[in-house]
Every structure is written in structure tokens, then in C-alpha cells.
């Protein structure tokens, strides 16, 4: 897909309702579309929209082995609520044990993320042409600069919610009565792995004390 055509599609999608954005991409790429979720604090938005647009479409989930019990509870709740078709992927057992044994989240958080999250995703991606995820721009400065659709590292990346504001997110969840992640009410605005997540607004509770702001999946 040429750069000019990509710009035209982004312009078109920017004026569309999010349901239409998602339907357009799913109809274009069909079985070559990869949908992922982390079951984080804003994951319910994309899952709810997917349930309207293409019910039963496979949704892939990376279980790092370090998630909060509340995240697994939330996963079960949303899976039942939307009758989700979840496909779970886990890191290689040997490298996961290495990360646990050496407490890599302390010594080298980038390598820990690579072992437990990035590498499992890299094993999936070659089977698809477009990767759909629920990133939202206001969450940090890196995400603010992302387009709705772009091509990076050999795959199109589609972020149907990237231009939503925090107010839109809150209004949507209130209007549809969507359940919040259990840890939100305890002060966790963003939730990842247990070792690298603290309470905080936005994503300020992630990888505290380091210059890291992303796990590496979306870079």
C-alpha cells in the first residue's frame, strides 16, 4: 500500500464512526486481521465495539505469567459478558523461568518484556497483515503521535480508538454501563504486570523509576 493511499485511508477513517472504522478494516483484511487485548483498564472499549461489529471474531491475549489476579478476573468477566473468542498465548516456559529466576523486571525490564510479551507476539504476527489494538492517544506522548492506520515492521497497525479523549472514554463506558477493571477503584489508571505497575494517573504508575513507558509491543 503506497504512502499516498495510506494517507487517504487515514483521512477517510478520521471522519468515520469507530464502528465503521473497525468494520472497514475487518472487511478489507478479513482472516488476515489480528485483534489483541491486554484486559487492561481501557480494553473493554475495543472488546465492546468488536462484539457489535464482528461477534465471535478471534481476540488474542498474551498472558505474561505476571498479571494481577484482578486482571484474570476481569478477563473472565468480559469473556462471559461478550462471549469472547479468546486465544491465549504464553511465553516460552524456559525464558519465562529465566526471567523469574533472575528477577529480570528489576535488572532489565526491557528484556523481561521482550521475553514475556514481545516474543510471543512476534511469533503470531507473520500470519497476519493488520494488527488491531485499543491504544488511546491521551495515555502518553508516544501514543498521541500515532495515526489511526500505519505500516511498521512489515504489518499494518490499526488503532481505531487512538484519537479518543479521556472524556469520550469515560462517557462511552458510562453510557453503556461497561465494567471497570477492579484495580481502577484502587487508584491504578493503567495495569500491566504486577512487578512493574503501581498506582498512578495515566500511565505514570508503569515502570516507575525508569525511562521506560512502553512494553515494546507498539514501538
- Count of helical stretches: 9
CATH superfamily: HUPs
Give the name of the CATH architecture: 3-Layer(aba) Sandwich
The CATH topology comes to: Rossmann fold
Structural class: alpha/beta
Order of helices and strands: HHEHEHEHHHEHEEH
| Average pLDDT over all residues | 90
Overview of the molecule:
The protein is an alpha/beta fold. The chain has a single domain (3-196), classed as 3-Layer(aba) Sandwich (Rossmann fold), CATH 3.40.50.620. Helices cover 42% and strands 12% of the residues. It is built from nine helices and six strands, in the order ααβαβαβαααβαββα. It has helices spanning 3-14, 18-29, 43-53, 69-82, 93-101, 104-107, 109-124, 141-144, 166-176; strands at residues 33-37, 58-62, 85-89, 130-132, 149-152, 155-158. A six-stranded mixed β-sheet has the order 3-2-1-4-6-5. Strand 1, helix 3 and strand 2 form a beta-alpha-beta unit. Helix 2 (18-29) crosses helix 3. It is globular. The mean pLDDT is 90.
List the helices and strands and how they pair.
Elements: H1 3-14, H2 18-29, E1 33-37, H3 43-53, E2 58-62, H4 69-82, E3 85-89, H5 93-101, H6 104-107, H7 109-124, E4 130-132, H8 141-144, E5 149-152, E6 155-158, H9 166-176
Parallel strand pairs: 1-2, 1-4, 2-3, 4-6
Antiparallel strand pairs: 5-6
Question: Which features does this protein show?
Answer:
219 residues; alpha/beta; Rossmann fold; six-stranded mixed sheet; 9 helices; 42% helix; globular
Amino acid at each position: 500500500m503506497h504512502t499516498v493511499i495510506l494517507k487517504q485511508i487515514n483521512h477517510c477513517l478520521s471522519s468515520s464512526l469507530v464502528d465503521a472504522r473497525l468494520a472497514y478494516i475487518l472487511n478489507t483484511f478479513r482472516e488476515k486481521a489480528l485483534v489483541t487485548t491486554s484486559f487492561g483498564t481501557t480494553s473493554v472499549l475495543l472488546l465492546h465495539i468488536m462484539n457489535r461489529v464482528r461477534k465471535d471474531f478471534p481476540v488474542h491475549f498474551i498472558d505474561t505469567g505476571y498479571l494481577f489476579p484482578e486482571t484474570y478476573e476481569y478477563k473472565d468477566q468480559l469473556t462471559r459478558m461478550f462471549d469472547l473468542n479468546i486465544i491465549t498465548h504464553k511465553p516460552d516456559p524456559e525464558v519465562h523461568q529465566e526471567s523469574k529466576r533472575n528477577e529480570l523486571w528489576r535488572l532489565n525490564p526491557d528484556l523481561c518484556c521482550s521475553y514475556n510479551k514481545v516474543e510471543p507476539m512476534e511469533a503470531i504476527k507473520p500470519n497476519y497483515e493488520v494488527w488491531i489494538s485499543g491504544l488511546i492517544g491521551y495515555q502518553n506522548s508516544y501514543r498521541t503521535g500515532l495515526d489511526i492506520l500505519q505500516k511498521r515492521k512489515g504489518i499494518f497497525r490499526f488503532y481505531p480508538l487512538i484519537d479518543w479523549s479521556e472524556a469520550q472514554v469515560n462517557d462511552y463506558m458510562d453510557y453503556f454501563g461497561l465494567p471497570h477493571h477492579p484495580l481502577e477503584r484502587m487508584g491504578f489508571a493503567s495495569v500491566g504486570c504486577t512487578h512493574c505497575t503501581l498506582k498512578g494517573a495515566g500511565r505514570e504508575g508503569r515502570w516507575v523509576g525508569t525511562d521506560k513507558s512502553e512494553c515494546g509491543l507498539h514501538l
